[in-house]
Amino acid sequence: MGFIFIAFALGILACQLGAALPPQGAVGLVAGLAVAGLLGGGVMRVRSRGLMRGLALLVMATAAAGAGWAYAAWRADLRLAEALPGEWEGRDVVVTGVVASLPQDFERGLRFVFEVEESAAPLPQKISLAWYKGFRDEEMHTLPPLHAGERWRLTVRLKRPHGNVNPHGFDYERWLLEQGIRATGYVRPAPDNQRLDAFVPGMMYGVERLREEVRERFRRALPEGAYTGVLVALAVGDQRSIPPELWRVFARTGISHLVAISGMHVTMIAALFAAAVSGLWRRSPALALRWPAQQAGVVAGFLIAFLYCLLAGWGVPAQRTLYMLGCVAFALVLRRETAPGRVLTLALAVVLVLDPWAVMAAGFWLSFGAVALLFLVSSGRLMPDGRLRGALRAQWAVTLGLVPALLVLFQQFSLVSPLANAIAIPLVSFVVTPLAIGFAILPLQMLADLAHGAFALTMLAIHWLAELPWASWQQAAPPAWLAVLATLGCLWALLPRGTPARWVGLAMLLPLLMWAPARPAPGEARVTVLDVGQGLAVHVQTAAHDLIYDTGPAFSADANSGERILLPYLRAGGVRRLDSLVVTHQDNDHSGGAEALLTGIPVAEVRSSLSENHPARLIAGLRHQPCVAGQAWEWDGVRFTMLHPARAADDSPGSKTNDVACVLRVDAAGLGVLLTSDIEAVSEAALLQGQAGQLASDVLVVPHHGSRSSSTAAFIEATRPRWVIFPVGYLNRFRHPNAQVWARWAASGAALWRTDTAGAVRVHLVPGGPRIEAAREATPRYWHGR
Length: 786
Prior knowledge:
globular; alpha+beta; CATH 2.40.50
C-alpha cells in the first residue's frame, strides 16, 4: 500500500504547484474516476498475475494521484472561500473573539492569532493581528496585558493576505493559507477595546494558555540567559525567542533540527514514558493478566507523545513521529507486524489528509526524508551494527542524503554537521531536552539552571565549529531536475555494501555542486526591482559584477529586509560578494537593510548619502565614499553614471534627506535604466537643469514611490521611458502611488508596473529589449491575491 500513499502525496503536490484551482465540476469528476480506479485496480490486482497485475498497480497509483489532486483542490476551495471582502480592506471593524495563540512580543508590540466570534462585517474566522505600542498613523496605542484564551472586543483594520514575492523568496501568502489565516491587520486605538472574559473554555485555548505559562516560567527563571529562547523552543515549540545570530550558527553547523521539536525528542519522551509504565504494569499481577505490559506501555507512550506534540505547537516533524508511533502502537495492540516503510508512508498520508499544504513546507521534506534515509541504511542488513557504527552510518546517511534538499530549500549545507551532531545530539536530546521538559512540569530553578548550563556547554564546541571558514557550503538554488538526479545518486550510494558501482551515485552529486546560474553576457545587464513592501531595493547584475541599490526597510530591531529578503535572494542567485552597495539616503525604507547586508556578505565598496554617524557608514569604514554627480564607471561593457546629488551630503548640511538621494543611471545593450530613489520636485528640477541630456531612458523606477511631491510633468517629458516601475507596499499608509501621479505616467504612454501586484520586476537589458518579467507571473500560485 505504500506506493498508493506516495502517489496520493504526489497528486497533492501537483495541485499545490498549480497556478489556478480547477472548476468544482472537474474536481468531482476526477474524484469519481479516482475512486473507480482504486476499486477496479484493487480487484484486478487480486484476480490477476504477471503483466496484468503490474497494470493494476499502475491504475491504482494513477487513481491515488488523482484522488490526492482532487482532495487538495477541494480543501483549497473551501479555505479560499473564507475571504475578507475587498470593500472591507483598510476600514475600521469592531470584532469580538478569542486570542487563539501565544502572543508574540516584538519591538513595537504584540502579534497574535484571533478567532472571530462576532463582527460588524463578514470576516474570516481566523485573523492575524498586531497590537502596536507607541505611535502608528499618528495615533497613540496603549498595550494592555494580553494572554491566550482571553475574549476581547477590538477595533481592527484588516487587509487580505499579502506577502512579498521575490525569486526563491519565502511565500508568506502560502504560509498564511496553511495556517488558516485569511486576513491580517492591526488593532486600532478605541474606547471599545476591552477584555470581556479572562479565559474561554476550550481544549486548544487551554493548550495555548499552558504554553504561554511555561514560556513565561522560563523567562522568569532565566531572564538574562543567552539560550533561554532555545529552552523555550525545546519545551513548547516556540522558536521566535531564538535570536537570528543563533539561527545562523545552527545553520552553519547543521543542528537546527535539534532546537526544534524533532521526531527524536518526541520518540525519546514516548519511549521513556512507555518503559516506565510497562515496568510498573508488570509489578501488578492483576493488571498484567488483564492486559500485556508491552501493549499498556506503548499506548501510554503514544498518549504522552500526543500531549507533548500539542504542547510543542503541532509541527510537521512532531506530527510525523506521532502518527508513526500510533501505527506501531496499533500494530502491537493487534499483535501484527508492520514494515517500517509502510508505517512511514501511512504517516505521510495522515499528515497530508490533515494538512494538504504541508507538502510545500521545508520541514515536511526534511522530516520525512531523514526518516526514510534512516530506514534505507538500517533495514535489510544480514549483520546488526554496533551502536557506534550504527550511529555513524545513520549520520552519514542523513548528511549525504539531504544535501540536494538543503541546497534547493536553503542553498547551503553544513560540512561540519557530522561532528557537530555527534557532539550536540547526546547532550541536547538526552540532557538538555529532558531537563527543559522537567522544568516545564516541575518548576524547580535547579532544572532550568542545569538545562541552560548543559546547552551553554554544548555551544562552546558548536560556536568553534561555526567560526571555521569552511563550515558550510553555499551555492545558488539548483533546478529541480538536477536535485532529483543528485537525490537518486545519493540513494544509490547509500545502498548496502555489494551494490555494484556505488561510487557512480556520488559522481551524480557533482553536477549539482558545480551548477551555477547563467549571468548576463558582456555588454548586457539584469536589473531586478525587488518586492520589499513600502521601500526600495534593486539588484543590478552584469557578466561578472553585482550592485545593490538601496536595501529596503527595517521592520523592527531584529527584522529587516536585508536579512529576510536581500541575503536569501542573493544566496539563491549564487551571488557571494557585492562589488558595490549604493545606499541613496538614510530614510528607513531605503537604508533599513544596509547593516545586515554589510555584515552578511562581502562588499567591496559603499556609495551613499548617509550621515557620517549612520551605523551602516560606520561599518563600511574606509570602503565608503559619498555619492556625487559625475561619478562613473564601467563593468563588463555596462556603464554606470551617478547623476545626483550635485554635492556630497556631508557638504549639504540642513538639506532634506530626499534632496541628497543618489540617482543612478545604468546603460547596457543600447538601453538605459534610471534609478531615482526618493527625489522630489526640487531635485527633478535640478536634474533637468544640469543633467537633462542623460535623463531619457527606456526603463525608470519612479521617484519617491509615486508620491505627489514628485514626477512633475517636465520630468516625465524629459525622461520619456517606455516602462515605469512603482516600488510600493500593498495598501501602504502613504497611499502611494498618488492617483494623479499614476495618471500622469499613464498619459505619457509608458507601461506601468507596481511591485505590490507584480512582485519583483526583472528587466533584462539585451539587444532588441528590454525584456521585462514579474515574479508573480513567472511563478503563479492559486492562492496569490486570494
